[in-house]
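Re: the pair you flagged

First of the two:
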Amino acid sequence: MKKTNNKQQTTIKVGFITISDRAARGEYEDIGGPAMQTWINNALLSPYEIATTIIEDEQTLIERTMIDFADNQNCNLILTTGGTGPTTRDVTPEATHAVCERIFDGFAEQMRAVSLRTVPTAILSRQTAGTRGKSLIINLPGKPEAIAVCLGAIFLAVPKCLELLDNSNIQIDLDFVEKNFG
């Protein structure tokens, strides 16, 4: 049985940004974007709209895309996948810091802490999270399994954060989210 709250729910917009040179050029199938979308579809009970894109690992492009999703497309929640590793092309955290007004270190700390329980190289992951206006931006790793672990680790805090940002009231499937909590 799905557990929900009883307050009036809000329709939100969720932006999904895949950051991958090869996927943007069509040389590689985007698996991160669909993994984020599937997880969110299972977690959200409230109605939501989506915006999606696949872009290359270019900091200015990532920044422009996040700004567009936040400021023009009015996404309440923006999830990115890819570009959080140690290579010189991995610039998603830098782009996120450049466009966010506030950084919420707790999201990154929790994602890494949970990931480190099973993947020793998770220490190399540089995901971050912050807000731009009324949008919450969360960077996720690129692998579907890691996306699920990280979303499970932090998603219980997302509805409250959105409520505080713009008075959104989203309902989540607590059974699904708690089952996936790291």
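Second of the two:
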Amino acid sequence: MNSGDLPHYLLDTNIISEIVKFAPDFKVIKKIGEHSSDMAISVLTWHELVYGLERLPEGLRKKELSKYVYDDVEQSFPIINFTKSAAEIHAKIRSAIEESGHNLPYADTQIAATAIAEDMILVTRNSRHFSEIEEKFSLKLENWFEENH
């Protein structure tokens, strides 16, 4: 569990991506500023960012995003590993989700399991996407795109 040394907020990939949009959501940018030293990303989010970069054609946009990922994200956010505890939680989540007849992306359920294992709040734009995990596994969830967060 979160020993107090880890940040409280685990940012989903869509939050990290919002920062470099042409017109980012002001509410999200404000929250990032408010919690700047209390945020981290999952190693799975790191994978999604690097994978997204690798898929881009060579050019100015790829160069700019690469600079953002390696100079800003990697230097600014601790990267939380997927642990044995998270793997066990992930197995339970996948089993319960499949049993209910639903299917969620594998990486998303791993990110949720990481948040639960480390007692962190998962920050995502896709809060409805994670609602079943929130209900069944006490995932702490915030959507900084909504007014009430």
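The chain has a mean pLDDT of 93.

-B.
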